[in-house]
Design goal:
Blueprint: E1 18-21, E2 28-32, H1 40-46, E3 63-67, E4 69-75, H2 90-103, H3 108-124, E5 127-133, H4 138-151, E6 154-158, E7 160-161, H5 175-192, E8 199-201, E9 204-205, H6 213-225, E10 231-235, H7 239-248, H8 256-262, E11 270-274, H9 280-288, E12 292-295, H10 297-300, H11 312-318, E13 321-324, H12 336-353, H13 363-377, E14 395-399, H14 416-426, E15 432-437, E16 440-443
Helix pairs in contact: 3-4, 4-5, 5-6, 12-13
The chain binds guanine and fe (iii) ion.
C-alpha cells in the first residue's frame, strides 16, 4: 500500500495466505489472508470453498510467493554485450560498442540464438514482464516476439526506429522503410497473439538523435491510429545526449518533453527511460500527459557518462508513474533484484544531493517499483503487479533455505519480513524456484498438489 501522498510504499506481508486460481489456472479467483494450515478442511469450509474440487499446494518452510518482476526497459539485442564499454559516454558507447553488436541481428539465425538465451535468462531471474527494445531489423524483431510467446513471457517487443546518426550498416534504409517494417512487426504480433494476452508491439523510436523529423512524425501518426500500442524511448539520459538533441532540434529549446509531445509520442502509454535530468516544466508535462518513467539506476551510474540517477522520490511525490528497468546491456545486470538494490544506492545519493528533501527508498518502495510500479508504467496494472482478485497469476515462488548454492542465510526466529528482506538484499536466481506467467510454469518444478 502507498502512503497518503503516494510518496512511500509499505510492504504487506501475509503469513497465512490462501490464493485460489480459476479452473484454467490463469487468473486469481479468490484470496484469503486468514487461512489455517493446521486445519485446512475447516478453513476452506469457512471460506465457503468447494474443498473436494480444489487441488491444494502448500509452501514449505522458508518459501513464499511474490508478484513477478517487471522490467520496464531493456535491450534484447544487447544481451550478449551486457556490461561492455563501462565508463564511455553515451554516444561514444553507442558508436563503439552497441551499434556493431546490434547490427548482427540482420542475421535471423543470430537473432534466434541470442534472443532465445535472453528470454530464458530473464525468466530464470523472475522477470515475468519485459519491455524490450529490438534491433532495427523486422525479421529479428518478429523472432523475439515469437520466442516471448513460445516461452511464455509477457512482453512488449519493439522494432527500433533509427534513420540517422548511425553507420550505414546499422540504420533503416529510409523513413518509409522504417515505418513500413514497423507496421509489419505490428501485424505479425497481432497475428500470433490476437488478444494481446502476452505480447504487444511497442513503438520504439530509439531516441530523437536517431530519428529525423519525418520518422518521428510518422511514428506519432502510427501511435495515433493505434491507441492500443505502447510507446517507448530514451529521455533526458545524460548531458552528452541532451546537448546533441538540443543541437538537432533547436526549436524545442532543450526540452525533450516538448520535442516528443510535439510529435504525438507522449501519453498514458509512453514509457520514458531514464529521466535523469528533468526541469520543472518537464516534470509537469510528463505528469499531465500521464507518461511513465523507467528508472534504470544500474546503467545510469555505470555507462553513458551520466552518473546521475533519476529523482524517483520526487516522481512518486508528484504522482508520476515509476518502475524499474535493468537497461541491460548498458546496465551490466539483467536482474531486477540488482536494479532494486541499485535504486536504493542511487536514492541515498539523491537524499544527500537534496539535503534530505528526497528521502532514500525503502525495501517497500523498491519492491513496489519492481512490481506494481512497473505494471502501472506499462499500463498493465489491471492485469498484473500484485495478487488482487481478478488479476492474472504472474508470480515467483521464492525459497530461502535448503537449495544448492543458496546465498541467503535464514536463521531460526527470523520473521517473514526479515526473510523477505534477506532475499531482496542477498538473493539471486537460485532463490527463484518457480516462475509463473499467466498461470503457466515458465521456470521450475511442476506443481505438486496434496
Ligand atoms: N540511448 C539511445 N540508445 C541507447 C541504448 O541502447 N542504451 C542507453 N542506455 N541509452 C541509449
Ligand atoms: Fe536503454
Amino acid at each position: 500500500p502507498r502512503s497518503e501522498d503516494g510518496s512511500t510504499h509499505t510492504l504487506e506481508i501475509i503469513p497465512l495466505a490462501f490464493l485460489l486460481l480459476n479452473p484454467q489456472g490463469t487468473h486469481i479467483e479468490f484470496f484469503a489472508k486468514d487461512f489455517d494450515p493446521s486445519n485446512p478442511t475447516v478453513s476452506l469450509e469457512r471460506l465457503n470453498l468447494p474443498i473436494d474440487q480444489i487441488d491444494v499446494t502448500y509452501l514449505a518452510a522458508g518459501e513464499f510467493l511474490i508478484p513477478g518482476f517487471i522490467d520496464t526497459h531493456n535491450h534484447a539485442p544487447q544481451w550478449a554485450m551486457r556490461g561492455l564499454g563501462q565508463g564511455l559516454h553515451i554516444l561514444d558507447w553507442l558508436d563503439q560498442i552497441t551499434f556493431p553488436q546490434e547490427s548482427k541481428f540482420a542475421d535471423p539465425a543470430h537473432a534466434k540464438r541470442v534472443y532465445s538465451s535472453c528470454v530464458d535468462g530473464f525468466l530464470r531471474q523472475g522477470t515475468t514482464t519485459a519491455s524490450y527494445y529490438g534491433s532495427v531489423h523486422g525479421e529479428a524483431t518478429k523472432i523475439l516476439a515469437d520466442l516471448c510467446l513460445a516461452k511464455g513471457q509477457r512482453a512488449f517487443v519493439g522494432k527500433c526506429n533509427m534513420t540517422r546518426n548511425s553507420p550505414d550498416s546499422y540504420r533503416d534504409a529510409s523513413v518509409e522503410n522504417s515505418l513500413q517494417v514497423t507496421m509489419e512487426c505490428i501485424a505479425h504480433i497481432r497475428r500470433i497473439d490476437p488478444n494481446a494476452e502476452l505480447v504487444k508491439h511497442v513503438l520504439t523510436p530509439r531516441f530523437a538523435i536517431s530519428c529525423t523529423n519525418e520518422t518521428l512524425q510518422g511514428l506519432g501518426q502510427i501511435a495515433k491510429e493505434n491507441p492500443d500500442l505502447p510507446v517507448q524511448t530514451h529521455f533526458n539520459e545524460a548531458e552528452q545526449e541532451i546537448l546533441a538533441t538540443t543541437e538537432l532540434f533547436p526549436q524545442f529549446g532543450g526540452s525533450e518533453a516538448d520535442l516528443y509531445e510535439h510529435y504525438g509520442l507522449l501519453g498514458p502509454r509512453t514509457i520514458l527511460a531514464h529521466c535523469c535530468h528533468m526541469t520543472e516544466h518537464e516534470m509537469k508535462r510528463i505528469k499531465d500527459l500521464e507518461c511513465g518513467v523507467a528508472h534504470c539506476p544500474v546503467s545510469n551510474m555505470t555507462v553513458g557518462g551520466g552518473f546521475m540517477a533519476a529523482p524517483v522520490r520526487e516522481f512518486m511525490r508528484r504522482g508520476i508513474k515509476v518502475g524499474l528497468g535493468s537497461d541491460s546491456g548498458g546496465g551490466f545486470s539483467s536482474s531486477i533484484l540488482d536494479a532494486m538494490r541499485q535504486a536504493m544506492i542511487a536514492s541515498h545519493a539523491r537524499e544527500k544531493m537534496t539535503e534530505g528533501k528526497d528521502k532514500s527508498l525503502s525495501i517497500g518502495d523498491v519492491f513496489y517499483l519492481a512490481t506494481l510500479g512497473g505494471a502501472e508504467v506499462c499500463g498493465l496494472a489491471e492485469k498484473v503487479g500484485n495478487f488482487e482478485v481478478g488479476k492474472e497469476f504472474d508470480a515467483l515462488l521464492i525459497g530461502t533455505r535448503d537449495n544448492p548454492g543458496i546465498m541467503t542465510m535464514v536463521e531460526d526466529g527470523d520473521d517473514l519480513g526479515t526473510i523477505f528482506e534477506k532475499f531482496i538484499m542477498t538473493g539471486d536466481d537460485r532463490n527463484i524456484l518457480d516462475v509463473y506467467v499467466r498461470g503457466r510454469l515458465v521456470k521450475g518444478r511442476p506443481m505438486e498438489t496434496a
